[in-house]
Amino acid sequence: MNSIDAAINKAKARHRIAVTIVVVLGTAIILGYLSWLFLVNGFKVKVLPADAAATQQFRFIEGTGFSRGDSVFLLGTTGVIRVSADKYQAQDLRLDVHASQVLEVELEPMPATVVLTTEPAHENMEWWVDGTRVHTGATLTTTFAPGQYQVAAQHPYYQIAQQTMTAEIAGELQQQLTLQPIAGTLQIQTEPAGASVYMEGSLVGQTPLSLPKQGGDYPIEVRLDGYQSVQDTLPVHRSQPTPTRHYLLQPEQGQLRVQAEPSDGALFISGTPRSSPASVDANVEHLVRYEKQGYISATKKLTLAPGEQRAIRFKLEPEIAKVNVTSNIPAEVFVAGKSVGQTPLELSLQTIPTSLEFRKSGYRTVTRNITPNARQTITVSAEMLQEFEARRKEGQPLFVETLGIQMLKLKPTAFTMGSPRNEVGRSPNEHQVQVDFSRSIWVSRHEITEAQFAQFKPGAASSNLPVTQVSWDEAAAYTNWLSEQEGLEPFYVIQNQQVVGFMPQARGYRLPTEAEWEFIAKLANRASPTKYVWGSTDRMREQQGNFSDESRRGQQTFIFKDYQDGYAERAPVGSFSANQAGFYDLDGNVREWVHDFYSVVQPATSGVMMDYTGVAQGTTHVVKGASYLSGRLQELRTAARTSGRQGEADIGFRIARYDE
């Protein structure tokens, strides 16, 4: 190859390189243009106010982009720019390609810096701007938004200094307000007049005194021979430029200390109650009196020199009075817990509030509070009442009433208890006894409920069903408990949880006697005795009571055919109608304990038995009435009787007591 060919080949190589470079550059330019078209987003930003727009600047603080004039270009979909201008506060603006691409932002002007002082300066200066207190202190340093303001400086010693100020954008306000002191006058008077007035140790005049002063607080001292000095501070303020004082000067004092026996009495100096030690006017005679209730008071006269200190002593003697003490029956009298004798008696007591107690076994204690009087003899009387009578006199409810036990009072009359030999269904144990009654009685209208018995025996069932599974001794103990709650003498004598006797004259609660039970079942409010609670017909009415009805068919041998009373077992007390005398469940629901011992042998009685309580002894007790287990008519007769001692599922009880 010659030199000409080599030159030609070299030229071709250079041409190929140039063409390649042009192609690459062209491709890059095309790609950049396409990126511009597809990746860069433009926004138009309008800045307000116009003054701010003149110096507006945009700076990206989130995202990437650039600005040109009032346009901003964002590379991506979101970003944040900070918009700023001279003398305006910068504001951040969020860019989002999915939102409007024409944006508007209004910049707030920068506030003016304000520094205000007064001449003279005061730390408790109050600064007010447009009628609002904004600061207390010698200097007000703050900022004002551009505009006009009414500024005031207030201090009690000076007139109010006010000025109108204009704040420019990003400006500075430094100003000193000159204060003018207020003019006032101190007006000072004393009684007596002629006292010297000192200010900062220098005499400024004598009272009455009128002293001109500028605003301020002025400590003064007022002095007059023979009188105590007075120290005070008089304010000359804008709201009170003329303070006026009228001082009632007090004489110079002496010091009196009183020691007294007994202590805690009342001390009077010249008729005025005082305490020890006491300051008293010097050079004046004083009457000092010491007294205490129950003692003879004592007095002393004295005069103290100025500044003198003196101690005096009193020892009082007890004051004694006569008191006559009586009561309707002899009772033991106690004073301060100590027995002093039995009424009637005469006592010598100190003339202080005294409590007398009248005590007697079985009676309510009576307390009488008195204050004996030495100038006359007083008489104290007490009416001694047994607890039961005391409660009734006071109108208090009986304890049984608080348990919901309703009692009915009646006066039984003479009748023959038991059944005649020709009575159909009669049992041989239904002995006939002629009985009569000397005392009225109270009997509960209902059988005692589980809830009422649970008050005596906590933990027992609590409902309105009649209580059962209670032995005769437990029932008697319940009646004694009721008596104790009402202050009545218990009827039964109980030892080791067993009844060993009873008190026939006691008015405490008890079980009804068999004679009483039969009276209210067959004769109360009737012209003649009846065979059944409802009468003498051998057919009972519907819903007569809770007996063994069709619901117990198949559970026991005897039931009342075609009879339905709604209860297979016990019913709540009072679920059926009362008898003519007002008593419930005498013929059904549960059988009932009565007081009497049970005997199958005819009692040895002759004539009429008064207040009959049954045979004198036995091992079991009479059970009266029928129950929800009774399925034969003969068991419903008022004369029917069974016996027992331990509790059973269908035995309950009701209570009674004598009225007097």
TrEMBL record:
Transmembrane segments: 17-39
UniProt-listed Pfam families: FGE-sulfatase (PF03781), PEGA (PF08308)
All residue ranges annotated as the Sulfatase-modifying factor enzyme-like domain in the record: 406-657
Keywords attached to this entry: Membrane, Transmembrane, Transmembrane helix
Protein name: Formylglycine-generating enzyme, required for sulfatase activity, contains SUMF1/FGE domain
Flavoprotein listed as a keyword: no
Residues covered by the PEGA domain: 184-240, 325-384
Ranges in coiled-coil conformation: none
A single MF term (Gene Ontology): formylglycine-generating oxidase activity
